[in-house]
């Protein structure tokens, strides 16, 4: 039998019992649809993360914090040490920040900073200053809560308008997130760049102060958290206001620090440096590492969804076995007839296994097409609504290669499922099949 | 008789079904030589082993005892695909029941041996239509096999049996489930093929009249050949 004839009959045979084939195809469809969607999420997110790392990542800088002792939950709380430093300023760094730092984590003391600075390869260490401002006001448009993003020191801003912060100037500068524009009373991002705003802050004795600063630019939200970013001059000014009137006895501590190293260092050298710091009890992370933690979370979610899709496909595999066994049963005489007429066992086997593969192809192709059909508009809808704060994120990206891979996997599963019925058909004895009952 | 004309030769072949106490000898020692161009009737009571003998001669099954020679060579020396090719190219089959694929068209059913042989679509179609024309069924080519009458179905089956220009046609009760008038038409077609194309006929039948039209008759009883010769 010619290959094209085998394929054509396999296709025709699969349409013989339409209801049964449809039901099996639905089971495969569910699995293939889910896999296509999850792989699109995976592609969309890693694509976004890659562009984020290149767009905002600053090479040659670590965020350093005290390494948290693992096993806190199982071993219970550690002994209280009254001399241990806690992070100062009463602030919580980057409320939604990836570092997950908060006031209760062990803080870095001045000695820690010195130790880090002494590590070969580290060129500079600076504590991360965390300030808690009360409000921000533009013209007379009312006061709004101001959240300060401490990641300014380790990343470039993804600008919607204006310029980057200048950390060498004595002028007070800040970047505001584009989500602030409307409330503050700007018409658009371009009009905000260059405007002057008032920042309200209280000192240690709860006395209110104001500082005026220039908005040099407007930035998009990134994975490193939202909030305004301040230049060094403004940050230092706010910090000094915040700490004025503070009793001298309070132990100095910082929740985190930044450490500079040679930006030309190779990836393995950076890892060696991170290892050295880790051995001394410090966790050192590059921007890429921090953004990478999102990838890990998304990978986890995608993995769970893939597992569900896998279960659906496994069930679908049994559906295929069942469908084809029934079909072999029904076509016993036809198989006997074809064998009597000289059709070889191999061709019979191919006929049924191709039918299985075709059912797999149908299910996966429809699954992928529907996933693309639903996913593409959904993705653009999400980027203009829920995910509008993260420009450039297309949560669902359908890569032809991964769709082809998924279809290949599904068809392979179908092929494996078809093995049992196909070999049953191939082994059939023509005489038995042709005996009249 | 020239040896070259000997197509098939059964030497004391036996076949039994089942095992142990339920073992049943369907065929116990039958010898038969089939010469090209002759027509042979295998006749006997139900259960006497006629179909079993025909299946063995048609290389659909292997005998448990004795030898079956194909063109003078023992069938067991042939490879599986060689036997498949014999059946596909040299044999035509008319089984006791129609065995048509019900939802396929008449033409598709007729072309089946050619499809299995790997003949190209165009040639397959031409030869299929020629076979149907021979049986005056060309107008039914596109109909589904399931929608034909019994006599039409049997003619389709014969068209299918001769589409590959076989050397031998094996027919198991070709008129068994037809009324006598239609049965006669089918018989005439078979004997015309025998006369005009020299196709060897091996016909299993209960019908003494049909058996009498054949060159010779093999009378079967309890798995053995009773006598050979002319019809009673
Ligand atoms: N697969 C089988 N298993 C067990 N017994 C079988 C099998 N095939 C045939 N037989 C037995 O072998 C004997 C011969 O069967 P066969 O089909 O050759 O008879 P037959 O002469 O063709 O009968 P009929 O005229 O009814 O078609 C019967 O008794 C039958 O029961
Ligand atoms: Mg019989």
Automatic annotation (TrEMBL), chain A:
GO molecular function, one term: transmembrane transporter activity
Signal sequence, renumbered to the chain: none
Coiled coil ranges: none
Chain segments annotated as transmembrane: 21-42, 300-325, 346-375, 395-417
Name of the protein described by the UniProt record: Putative ABC transport system permease protein
Domain MacB-like periplasmic core: 21-238
GO CC terms, sorted: plasma membrane
Annotated localization: Cell membrane
Organism: Alpinimonas psychrophila
Domain ABC3 transporter permease C-terminal as annotated: residue spans: 307-430
Keyword Membrane: yes
Topology term for the membrane: Multi-pass membrane protein
Similarity annotation: Belongs to the ABC-4 integral membrane protein family.
Keywords, ordered alphabetically: Cell membrane, Membrane, Transmembrane, Transmembrane helix
Chief localization: membrane
PANTHER family: ABC TRANSPORTER PERMEASE YTRF, MEMBRANE COMPONENT OF TRANSPORTER-RELATED
